[in-house]
Write a structure and sequence with these properties.
Oligomer: heterodimer
Largest interface: A-B, 32 and 33 residues
Structural class of chain B: mainly alpha
Number of strands of chain A: 5
Order of helices and strands of chain B: HHHHHH
Distance between the termini of chain A: 13 Å
Strand content of chain B: under 5%
Radius of gyration of chain A: 13 Å
Largest sheet of chain B: none
Chain lengths: ~130, ~210
């Protein structure tokens, strides 16, 4: 069960992708959605607090998605934050790096709304299972 | 010929060429003459290449510019389609809401008719969402274009180096010659992205190997 009341951070250097992901998230039911253009921008916003989910691209200037993920997992306050990687960077090596860094799930572009929703359901299903 | 001037036959102390040296000297002379001809042909070929190489190296920045334009145009177009789709979705929501209100106030056959219309209107929600998602192609296009631009820049540098090395023309302000081999690396990545990129089902399969569904 997805808690659509949480605040979501969409991280992507492409404004079109941020808009697309936001629209899909809105359709799923999320209303509190913020944006960041790169990992550094995202980290600053995440450290300000209040987020319940990160949906991040891999390839970004300044700080890449994988570095953002590592920084999140290394931060005592953020380390349990659900982190969904949405990326075209779908080579096996990258996927393994992301898994090793603690990614919650991984969606390959181009994706469908059903895939994104399915992944979120799995992430929150797992979170719920861990919490209960 | 240059070689004729440079290679003087070996002579003895009194100016007479030794008889036994003559055949060897002729062979060397003949080989050098052939080598000279070969160098002349190469030089001529390089001169003939001057125009196409220079022209190509000058056209590459234009090609790069076209690619940047292409990325920008697809980005602008995508934003436009997203905006129009958002408007359609807002209208669809209003129509759905009004139909539901109308349905609550009617009876009989009208209810069935309104239900049929509502089914169609609700189905459009998914279609509009799929239009949004399908537009993510623009991000993939932009990434590929960026890789192509890097490759073209690298090719331009290589061509200009060729031009300079063979002295076809003076180097014309080669910008950013650093990062040698980066273009090839990006080309390799571009190529590998076509052949080794994972599909979602394979990603899921690998994730499940790590105990993640």
């Amino acid at each position: 069960m997805i808690d659509t009341g949480i605040k979501v951070l969409v991280v992507d250097d492409m404004s079109t992708m941020r808009r697309i992901v936001k629209n899909v998230l809105r359709q799923i039911g999320f209303t509190d959605i913020m944006e960041a253009e790169n990992g550094q921008d995202a980290l600053t916003k995440l450290r300000a607090g209040g987020f319940g989910l990160v949906v991040s691209d891999w390839n970004m200037p300044v700080m890449q998605g994988i570095d953002l993920l590592r920084a999140v997992r290394a931060d005592a306050e953020l380390k349990t934050l659900p982190f969904l990687m949405v990326t075209a960077e779908a080579q096996k090596e990258n996927l393994i790096l992301a898994v090793q860094a603690g990614v919650s799930n991984y969606v390959v572009k181009p994706f469908t709304a059903e895939i994104l929703q399915g992944k979120l359901e799995k992430i929150f299903g797992n979170v719920q299972t861990v919490q209960t | 010929m240059l070689v004729d001037r440079m290679i003087e036959p070996e002579v003895s102390g009194d100016g007479e060429m030794l008889e036994e040296d003559l055949p060897k000297e002729r062979v060397i002379h003949s080989e050098l003459a052939e080598l000279t001809k070969y160098v002349e042909v190469i030089t001529q070929t390089i001169r003939e290449m001057e125009s196409p190489v220079t022209s190509t190296s000058e056209q590459l920045p234009q090609a790069t510019s076209h690619l940047h334009d292409l990325a920008k145009m697809t980005e602008d177009g995508t934003h436009q389609v997203i905006s129009l789709t958002e408007e359609l979705e807002r209208n669809r929501e209003v129509i759905q809401h009004q139909l539901e209100q109308l349905r609550a106030n009617v009876a009989g056959r009208a209810v069935k008719d309104l239900d049929a219309i509502l089914t169609i209107v609700k189905a459009d929600e998914g279609r509009l969402l799929n239009i949004h998602v399908a537009l993510s192609f623009q991000d993939l296009v932009a990434q590929r274009v960026e890789k192509l631009v890097t490759v073209l820049t690298e090719i331009q540098h290589k061509l200009l180096k060729l031009v300079v090395i063979f002295g076809i023309q003076q180097q014309k302000g080669v910008a950013g010659t650093s990062g040698e081999g980066r273009g090839y690396e990006m080309l390799r990545q571009l190529e590998s992205s076509k052949t080794t990129a994972l599909q979602q089902d394979l990603v899921d399969s690998i994730m499940s190997e790590y105990g993640m569904s």
